[in-house]
Amino acid sequence: MTNERANDAHGSLYHVASNDARAELIDVSGVDAKSMAEINAIMGALGRLRETERLLMDESQRFMKLGETDMRALHFLMVSENRGVLVTPGALAAQIGISAASTTKLLDRLERGGHVVRHPHPSDRRALTLTVTPETRRAATMSVGRQQARRFYAAARLTSAEREAVARFLDDMAHELLEGSREWHESQVER
Questions:
Q1: pTM for this entry
Q2: Using H for helix, E for strand and C for coil, what is the string for the chain?
Q3: pLDDT (0 to 100) of residue 49
């Protein structure tokens, strides 16, 4: 199968008609054929991006021998270190959305694996701060970081107006997804 045909087959997986054949979810009555084709192209591109991100995450997790939460924690710690921000276990828990008990287990696992180090907080003797080991930072930067940094080049190839439109679209889509999630959750609670 050619790459173009693979993209078409994969893209149609996300077409509106493929996912809402009975028109139960989306009212497309005011959408002309050209607009629908453009919308389907966007949905296909988003699907390909999602699949690519999933593939890269899976490869990175295998390479680093870590799970998704572990990778999210290391990413947050590395970005915080880059910004000169101290991270406590509580701040890490809040960022990745896990309980204090789960954070302790996570940090024990990452520390045993040689990925993080706990340090006394410089101004609060009751608290700890967390850092990524140089070996893990190097491995993550050369694998995951290098791949993810390539997003910059795609964004840099856009014009200023295109970047503004893409950012607005992605923010709007995130808002719509969250709003839909809230509506669904509320409908389940009412039952």
A1: 0.73
A2: CCHHHHHHHHHHCCCHHHHCCCCCCCCCCCCCHHHHHHHHHHHHHHHHHHHHHHHHHHHHHHHHCCCHHHHHHHHHHHHHHHCCCCCCHHHHHHHHCCCHHHHHHHHHHHHHCCCEEEEECCCCCCCEEEEECHHHHHHHHHHHHHHHHCHHHHHHCCCHHHHHHHHHHHHHHHHHHHHHHHHHHHHHHHC
A3: 92
